Amino acid sequence: MEINLHDLTNMLAKIDRRHVQLALLIMTMILFVLGAGAPGALGDH
Amino acid sequence: MILLLAILAGLIAGYTRARLNHSALSIPRLRLAWLVLIAVIPQLLATEFSFTRQRIPVSMIPPILVGSQVLLLLFALSNLRRPGFILLGIGLTLNLTVITLNGGWMPISPDTVTNIAPDASPGAWEIGERLGFSKDLVMPVSNTRLWALSDRFVFPGWFPAQVAFSIGDVLIAAGAFLFLFSLGAPSNRLNVLSD
User: Fold this and answer.
1) In whole angstroms, how far apart are CA B96 and each of A43, A44, B172, B184?
2) What does residue B136 show for φ and ψ, rounded to 5 degrees?
3) Smallest CA–CA separation between B92 and chain A, in Å?
4) What residues in B contact A29, CB-CB < 8 Å?
């Protein structure tokens, strides 16, 4: 079985880049809702 | 907590939608995403991290909160054509409006505080004081401007998270869900490539 190392590397890099981009997008949304929302709780005081 | 649940639910729904469509989640490039980080860091320092929130003077909270939300509104307006961002923008505008009209704090009534913390020890909260380390200030309804937009909703008693939330929070949760759900749309190639 012939493995094209270059293609494999490209594929892994692409997958990895997508994961990073998705993580950044999710993090952006998490930070946005935390900043935009204002739910009130007594919490630890 | 409730807002993070909306994120989680949106992600699960978006991922499921993508799987059903035999496609991958789209990853759009949001405009001015860096602004979110800059806007939120001061808020997190003032409300979330125990080391810093105890050291930031209460008088600094209103300008931090209003300034931060103005920047977040710029971000939302820059991405209005994305699914869910109209709801996010409206929800944020409602929160920002009631906060600005009430001295830079999200108002919460004593009755609502009693509802979410019925077993709070005496002195745990007082009228006219900040509620814990939240963005809320305990204010009588009669002294609250635009009370309808304040933190006046609560979950049923059986719900594990006892927090008060505003109509703006509901719209923000809905907008976040809708945006993340849209990532699983079948024709997402244009979304991925367009800026």
Assistant:
1) 22, 25, 12, 31
2) -95, 145
3) 5
4) 7, 176, 179-180
Q: At B137, which helix (H) or strand (E)?
A: strand B136-138
Nearest to A41 among B11, B116, B168 (CB): B116
A12 close contact with B: CB closer than 8 A: no
Closest CA in chain B for residue A40: B164
Please report, rounded to a whole number, the percentage of residues in chain B having pLDDT higher than 70: 95
Cβ-contact B70, B100 below 8 angstroms: no
Q: What are phi and psi of B107, to 5 degrees?
A: -75, 145
Q: Could you tell me the residue range of the domain that residue B50 belongs to?
A: 2-193
How many domains in chain B?
1
Per-residue confidence at B56, pLDDT binned at 50, 70, 90? Answer: very high
- Between CA A13 and CA B141 the distance in angstroms is 56
Using alpha carbons, list the distances in angstroms from residue A38 to B2, B63, B137, B138, B194.
10, 15, 11, 13, 32
Q: ipTM of this model?
A: 0.91
Average pLDDT along chain B: 92
pLDDT of residue A2: 61
* B129-144 average pLDDT score: 94
- Closest by Cα among B60, B168, B150 to B106: B150
